[in-house]
Structures are given as structure tokens and as C-alpha cells.
Write a structure and sequence with these properties.
NA-bd_OB-fold; 6-stranded antiparallel beta sheet; OB fold (Dihydrolipoamide Acetyltransferase, E2P); Phe-tRNA_synthase-like_B3/B4; alpha+beta; about 850 residues; ATP binding; 6 domains; 41 strands; single chain; elongated
């Protein structure tokens, strides 16, 4: 996000004398530049100019020598803590006593003094304190302590404003040093949308400030003197033989040489200060000037050491396997789509100098010994730069601007401005010959009717507002009433300015008209609510399922749908498991997570692990989100060209390659089910809880789950159940699974012992729920409670026995609950005992003994007939 120092902005736009950062941010927000942050002055309090009256060097026991200094800080401030207004012998006037460890100043020098109450950068507050046997009543400041960087004269130590009045900044004891050094600068940080790349410069923001306030705007570009007019500079060849989308990677390349620069020249303090306020670190004069011009005008520049450069410079695409060590000391393997800057300095005559528009290489970078430089300013294709920066994970200040579009008319003015600054502060001469290869395409004109703005925005705009707004942003407007052409008076032909590549269609112009006339002119009218019944059945069901789990004590979480290829093995999926058919993303956010999840537990288990890693002792989380399955094995969706509408065949292929997607609900529970109390430790979460939670969620949407034992990864083979719902044709559909996780999976994700989980295809469960929910009358007669224990084969699921009990009880069955499962020698090998509690109730009267007995017989007979079960004695 660009940072805008107000004093810098004031060079291009007429700010009022009392303009504050808050007011400037408010003004810019009216034209769509939103405030991100406001940074006040870095130094506050009494920071003043002082004159050294006396200096006594005092050696210390530790070998260090300190200075006991008497400083005149003006009549208003000369009140020393240990010498109130009383002159010392040899003093001409009252002063303050200050301890200082620097030695680059002498008696008579003007220095910068921070008095008690001053707050320096880093929230460093100054106060009087006892040290080295004296009360130091303030501090004599260095450039580093004030956030100004090192001394431009190369001296270490405090700032010396002047010796007598022979050099340096003017000032008298007691003068405000904050204003003198420009330390009162306020900074506004703004958010720039991708279509407003020109606002990544002081020039662009000043233009927008002018639109917002009507303040006079002074464009710095016309004021740059173009001195190098002869062609024949360093040879440059544009050889983009593999343009992306038919667009050449480099359409203009300007190079200008500056010779005889003083390698020891320092960046002027004011420039270093501005760079720091704008968020950049001062490095050296040459680098700082290129950064300063980029921030000021918006044109990224690159400086080469001319002695290391071997012409010609060639702009081309990379070859397979080429490598480059960039300025961040990282060796990068290049892609054939990367646009490169090369020269003939390699062993084979071809050397890569940098990634065009992104970052240069170390072979030709400027150094402390550089005296001759070549300045580069070019126009690169935004798409090519953006892809290269993302491919190499190498965002830079240059790429931020190039990928949003840079004014193609800027390169010539930018290199001259940079060259002139370098010569001004570092000496040298500007070569009279210049390289300017390529051409600048004129923006395409756009036809717009005057009434289009009103038709699209919905409020009336006058012809003067339409034309005036377009001319204010730099457009050339032809036609309309102003030109006296009656036949075309309602139509304008608008040519956008070179710095607005985002203006390509009529609607773009309408947006600019609405923006400049004022968004506040557009009334906020809430649309009337569409008649209906509120949320759909599916929406209510999803909310009900989530609410049921939250009420059971679980916490809802969110996880990204991206997973690594290793997750399938970590969850112990079989080689032929359909859940391995994952969709691969061509441009993933992270290279190590290129797949879309096929099961919600694939991303929910890492979330559980992360929570436990943050100090939690148990876990109870759930999530409702989408899962994806590939429709075609290994098939990628075609990518149509953006120049024309895709054909019907392309659209069909794209739709056919889209993954199958459904909404899932999953939960993971492990560890203690609640906090410790005086009653003892709470019971741990277990597989039965996972089944119960799945049933709760299904019941919340009106469905009932049937559970059958199953072996399914990632669950424990003997403690997991397959979840089914009944279908309209009387069959059942598998909608998920629940149970205890496999011990290996628990170990893999570092979860508590016997952690359990469930996952449901929530959309399928909602679809299986009855469309009509019938009200059940409140019973008025007492229930009859009967217990049954049936011995069945070990392979018979409990749900089958439960279903038989319901059939046998008929209309009297109110509730059937499995409360015990027993196996052992008493039952016999291969058999198990299932105990059910059955609640019987009649709507017609109290059940008598005969009716209850008849119901028992029907239940026993039904179980025997359905599953071969015998009543256990």
C-alpha cells in the first residue's frame, strides 16, 4: 500500500496550510482511494536547536570517555535540573547540562537537543536522569535517533547543524528543530485498487487529490528537461518471440548513461527522509534516486553498472533451464514464459541480467565503486510481469506498478529526472546520446452517449458534468454540444490518457463520471424485499444441523479446501479408494497443497491438531463445507483464449471438467468431554459420542440414520459404523461414517487416544428427509416399559433387530433404544446379545396386561422371523 507524506504530496498539489493527514485521507476517500492507516509525526515534544557552550571530557573507569556538555537551548528552555538559570563560570548565559558519548562536535557547534518530554521514533521518551555523576537534562541527538538515517557527510555521531554560521542548516538556540528537519511530516497510507495503478505515485495521488478538492495540480513530468536527444546510445534489441496472448512483453525500452559519478556521494538527507516516510530503506545515492523517481512519477527504473554491461541489451523470453541469481541472492530456475533482460557478457556471449519488470540480477548491480551507470526505463506487459512475479514468489515495488499498468509516455522523462538528480548530488555528466527502442500505441477512442451515465447510474448528469469529468481525468473529448455538431451532439468520442490503461469501454467512463461528480450524490435506496417464505428448506436444514452440534458443545471452525497429495496415505485410504480421485489445481496457493479435498476430515483433522498444539487438552470441533470429486481422471479443464467468446464445445468441455461438489458435515471429538470438577474427571469422548452427534445432526434436519458396522478408513476397523438413510423406494443410501479413528491416524495427527469422528453428506441427508413434517399429538396415557435381550448371529446389525422390534410392536412402538451388547461363553461362539429398552404407548387408552403381553409375543416373533433372533433367558 502506498504511503503518502503530506510534504511530498504538497509539491504536486496545493494543500492548505492547515491540512492534516486525517483531512487528506478523507478527501482521497471521496474519489475511491481508501485510507489504510495514518502515521503522525515521529517526533513530538520539545526538540530544539542548541549551541554548545562548554564541553568537558571525563574519562571513566570502564575506559570510556564521556562529555559533560553545557548547551544553550534558548531563553524558554534554559532551565537545567542541576543549575536552574544560574550561569557557570565561563558561561555567557544560562544553559542545560547534558551527558553525551559522541565526539564529532565541539564548542560553538549548533546541535539538535531533545529536552525532557520529547518522544523520539520507537516511542522513546526523554527524561532528566542521573548518570555519570551528573543530571543529564536532555539528549543531544544523532540522525539515527531521529529516524533520519546516517549523516550524509559520512560522519558517525550526532547531527551538527553548523559551526558558527559557516555551513549547514540555519537556526538559533531555542528554534524548533522538528520543523527545521522536517520531522513533523504526517503520512497517509492508502489502498489502491488494481485498476488505479497510476496512484502508486505521488504524481497520481496528487492528481486524485485535485479531483477531490479542486486544489491546483502541478504535473512534474512537463517540467523535466530532456537533454539527451541524439540517438545512438547503448544498443537494445526487443526480441519477444513468444508473446503472451499475442501481446509483446516489452513495447518500449529507454536507456541513458551517466558517467563520472562520485561513488562516495551520499543521498541528501531530505531524500532519505522521504524514502523512509514512504516505507523504503535508503541504500545508496544511485539506488535511492531510482526509488525516489519511481515513487514520485510512477515509472520503475533500474540502474546497471555500465562497466559490467556488455552490449547489446536484448529483451527476450527465457530458455528452458536458464538460471538467474537475483538481487536477493536467490538462484532461480527460469520459465519459458519469463521475460528477461540479457546482454552479451556471458561465457557463451549471452548473459541474463534480470527478470523484466520484477528484479535485476547481481552480475551488473551497482556497488560502492560504481562511477558509470546505465539507467533503464521500459514499458512491460502487465500480464507477463504479474505471472513472473507470482511464479517466482518475488513481489517487488516495480512489479506492483508494472502489473497494474505504467504510463508508456513516462520512460523518457523518468530517466532524465533520475539522471539529473544523480548528477546534482553525485556529480558526473549525462551522455548526450539516448536509446529509445520500440513504440507507444495510442489509446483507443471510446464512443459514449451523454445520456449513458444517467442510464447506467440512475441519477441525472448534465452534459457539462459528463464532459468536465472526462476532461478532468485527462481524456481528450470530441463531439457533443461544445463542438457545435448538431448531428452528433449527444455523442462523445473520448480518448483516454496514456496513464489510464484501465479505461477501455463505455462503462469505465461512466464509472469515472460517477466518481468525480461524487458517490455521495447517488442516493442509498434499499430494494424492497422479494415476497416469499424466507429461507429455503435446505438453508434452514443446514443451519439446524450446525446449531444441533453447537448445542452439543462443539465449536464450529473453518479450513481451506486445499490438501497435499500425502493426505490420502496419512488417512490410510486404499489404493483403489474413490476418495483419491482429487481435483488438481493448476495454479495453487501453495505448491505443497495442489489438491482439493475429497473428504472434509482431510482438512478438519489438521485443524484439530493445530488447536491441540496451541495448548488445548481436548478437541470438539465441526465444520460444514464443500468437498470435491474429479469427474474425469487426470483431465484438465481447457483454458479458452480471452480474445473471443468460447465456443459451445469449449463451454461444454469446461463444464464437464468441473468437479462434482457437495456439502458435507464433519466433526472430530477427543480427550475429556468437559472440564474437571469436584465430582471428578469428565468422561472422555468416544465412538458412541460420534454416532450420537451424527444422529443429532440428522434429526435436526428431519432424517433418521441407520447404522451398520463397516471397515472404512480412517476409522478403527472394529469401532466404526456406516451411516445410511432410507430412500423413497424403500432402499437405503450410504451418507457417511462415524466411529473411533484408527490408532495410526490418531498417532499421525497427534490426537488424544481414542479420538472419534463422523462425516456426513449433509445434502444427501437433507434430500432424504421427509418433505412434510406431521405433528405428533401429545400423549395423554401412560407408557409401558419392556426390556428384551435377543441372541443373534454376530454378523446381524443392531439396526436390523431394532427394525424388527418396531414392526412387531406396530402402532404401539413409541421408542426403541439399544442399551447393551454382550458377547461371551454364555452366549456361544459367533453370537451376541443385544438388549433393547422398548417404550409402548396407546393413543386410545391405558395398556392392559393382555395388550402388553400380546405386543411382547409379536415382537419376539418378528425378531425371530426377520433375523433369527432368540429371546435370551
Amino acid at each position: 500500500m502506498p504511503r503518502i507524506p503530506l510534504t511530498w504530496l504538497a509539491e504536486h498539489a496545493a494543500l492548505s496550510a492547515d491540512a492534516s493527514a486525517l483531512q487528506v485521507a478523507t478527501d482521497l476517500s471521496r474519489v475511491g482511494l481508501e485510507e489504510e492507516a495514518i502515521f503522525g509525526a515521529q517526533v513530538t515534544g520539545p526538540l530544539v536547536v542548541g549551541r554548545v557552550l562548554d564541553l568537558v571530557k571525563e574519562p571513566q573507569k570502564n575506559g570510556k570517555t564521556i562529555n559533560w556538555v553545557r548547551v544553550d537551548v534558548g531563553p524558554e528552555h534554559n532551565e537545567a535540573a542541576d543549575n536552574p538559570k544560574d550561569p557557570q563560570p565561563g558561561e555567557e548565559r544560562p544553559s542545560r547540562g547534558i551527558i553525551c558519548g559522541a565526539h564529532n562536535f565541539e564548542v560553538g557547534d549548533l546541535v539538535v537537543v531533545s529536552l525532557p518530554g520529547t518522544v523520539l521514533p520507537g516511542d522513546f521518551a526523554i527524561a532528566a536522569r542521573k548518570t555519570y555523576g551528573h543530571t543529564s537534562d536532555g539528549m543531544i541527538c544523532s540522525g539515527e535517533e531521529l529516524g533520519l538515517g546516517p549523516d550524509p557527510d559520512g560522519e558517525d555521531g550526532i547531527i551538527v547543524l553548523g559551526r558558527g554560521h559557516a555551513k549547514g542548516l540555519t537556526g538559533e538556540p531555542g528554534d524548533d528543530a522538528i520543523a527545521l528537519l522536517g520531522l513533523a511530516d504526517e503520512v497517509v497510507e492508502i489502498n489502491v485498487t488494481p485498476d488505479r495503478g497510476y496512484c502508486f505515485s505521488m504524481r497520481g495521488v496528487a492528481r486524485e487529490y485535485s479531483h477531490a478538492t479542486g486544489a491546483a495540480f502541478t504535473d512534474p513530468v512537463p517540467g523535466v528537461e530532456i537533454t539527451a536527444t541524439d540517438r545512438g546510445g547503448i544498443p537494445v534489441q526487443l526480441r519477444d518471440q513468444a508473446p503472451l496472448n499475442g501481446v509483446e512483453g516489452c513495447t518500449r525500452f529507454v536507456a541513458l548513461e551517466v558517467q563520472g559519478v562520485d561513488p562516495e556521494a551520499q543521498t541528501p538527507r531530505w531524500m532519505a527522509r522521504r524514502l523512509t516516510l514512504a516505507g523504503m530503506r535508503p541504500i545508496s545515492l544511485i539506488v535511492d534516486v531510482t526509488n525516489y523517481v519511481m515513487l514520485d512519477l510512477g515509472q520503475p527504473l533500474h540502474a546497471y553498472d555500465a562497466k559490467k554491461l556488455v552490449g547489446p541489451i536484448v529483451v527476450r523470453r527465457a530458455q528452458q533451464g536458464e538460471k538467474l541469481t537475483t538481487l536477493d541472492d536467490v538462484e532461480r530456475t527460469l520459465d519459458p514464459e519469463d521475460l528477461l533482460i540479457t546482454d552479451a557478457g556471458g561465457e557463451s556471449g549471452d548473459r541474463v541480467l534480470g527478470l523484466a519488470g520484477v528484479m535485476g540480477g547481481e552480475d551488473t548491480e551497482v556497488s560502492a565503486s560504481t562511477t558509470n551507470i546505465v539507467l533503464e526505463a521500459a514499458t512491460f506487459d502487465p500480464v507477463s510481469v504479474a505471472r513472473t512475479a507470482r511464479r517466482h514468489r518475488l513481489p517487488s515495488e516495480a512489479s506492483k506498478r508494472f502489473e497494474r499498468g505504467v504510463d508508456p509516455q513516462l520512460p523518457l522523462a523518468a530517466v532524465h529526472r533520475a539522471a539529473q538528480l544523480i548528477v546534482e548530488f553525485g556529480g558526473g555528466t549525462i551522455e548526450h546520446r539516448i536509446t529509445d527502442e520500440g513504440s507507444v500505441a495510442e489509446p483507443a477512442p471510446i464512443t459514449i452517449a451523454i445520456g449513458d451515465a444517467e442510464r447506467l447510474v440512475g441519477i441525472p448528469y448534465t452534459a457539462e458534468q459528463v464532459r468536465g469529468s472526462l476532461e478532468a481525468i485527462g481524456c481528450e473529448v470530441a463531439g457533443g454540444p461544445a463542438d457545435g455538431d448538431a448531428a452528433a451532439e449527444d455523442t462523445l468520442v473520448v480518448t483516454p490518457p496514456s496513464w489510464r490503461p484501465d479505461l477501455t469501454i463505455r462503462e469505465d467512463l461512466v464509472e469515472e463520471i460517477a466518481r468525480l461528480v461524487g458517490y455521495e450524490q447517488i442516493p442509498s435506496i434499499l430494494p424492497p424485499a422479494v415476497g416469499g417464505h424466507g429461507l429455503t428448506v435446505a438453508q434452514r436444514s443446514r443451519r439446524a444441523a450446525r446449531r444441533a452440534l453447537a448445542e452439543a458443545g462443539l465449536v464450529e471452525v473453518a479450513s481451506a479446501p486445499f490438501v497435499a497429495e500425502s493426505v490420502h496415505d496419512r488417512l490410510r485410504y486404499g489404493k483403489d479408494d474413490a476418495r483419491r480421485e482429487a481435483v488438481r489445481i493448476l495454479n495453487p496457493l501453495a505448491e505443497d497443497e495442489p489438491l482439493l479435498r475429497t473428504e472434509l476430515l482431510q482438512t478438519l483433522l489438521p485443524v484439530a491438531r493445530r488447536n491441540l498444539g496451541r495448548g488445548e487438552e481436548s478437541v470438539a470441533v465441526f465444520q460444514r463445507a464443500s468437498v470435491f470429486r474429479a469427474r474425469t481422471a487426470g483431465g484438465a479443464a481447457p483454458v479458452p483464449a480471452p480474445a473471443a467468446r468460447p465456443s459451445d464445445q469449449d463451454l461444454e468441455a469446461i463444464l464437464g471438467a468441473l468437479p462434482a461438489q457437495t456439502g458435507a458435515l464433519a466433526a472430530v471429538v477427543g480427550g475429556a468431554s468437559g472440564p474437571d470438577s469436584w465430582q471428578g474427571e469428565p468422561a472422555p469422548w468416544g465412538w458412541a459420542d460420534a454416532l450420537d452427534l451424527a444422529r443429532r445432526a440428522a434429526a435436526a434436519v428431519g432424517a433418521e440414520l441407520e447404522v451398520r458396522q463397516v471397515e472404512r478408513a480412517p476409522f478403527h476397523p472394529g469401532r466404526a459404523g456406516e451411516l445410511r438413510v432410507a430412500t423413497a423406494d424403500g432402499d437405503s443410501l450410504v451418507v457417511g461414517a462415524a466411529g473411533e479413528l484408527h490408532p495410526a491416524v490418531i498417532k499421525e495427527f497427534a490426537l488424544p487416544a481414542r479420538t472419534a469422528a463422523f462425516e456426513l453428506d449433509l445434502e444427501a441427508v437433507i434430500g432424504a428427509a421427509p418433505a412434510v413434517v406431521r405433528a405428533v399429538p401429545v400423549p395423554t396415557f401412560p407408557p409401558a416399559k419392556e426390556d428384551f435381550a435377543f441372541v443373534v448371529e454376530d454378523s446381524v446389525p443392531a439396526s436390523a433387530v431394532e427394525a424388527a422390534i418396531v414392526v412387531g410392536a406396530g402402532d404401539l412402538a413409541e421408542n426403541v433404544h439399544l442399551f447393551d451388547v454382550f458377547t461371551g461363553e454364555q452366549i456361544g461362539a459367533g453370537k451376541k446379545s443385544l438388549a433393547f429398552a422398548v417404550r409402548l404407548r396407546s393413543t386410545e387408552g391405558t395398556l392392559g396386561a393382555d395388550e402388553i403381553g400380546a405386543a411382547r409375543k409379536r415382537i419376539i416373533a418378528a425378531v425371530e422371523t426377520a433375523v433369527g433372533g432368540e429371546l435370551r433367558a
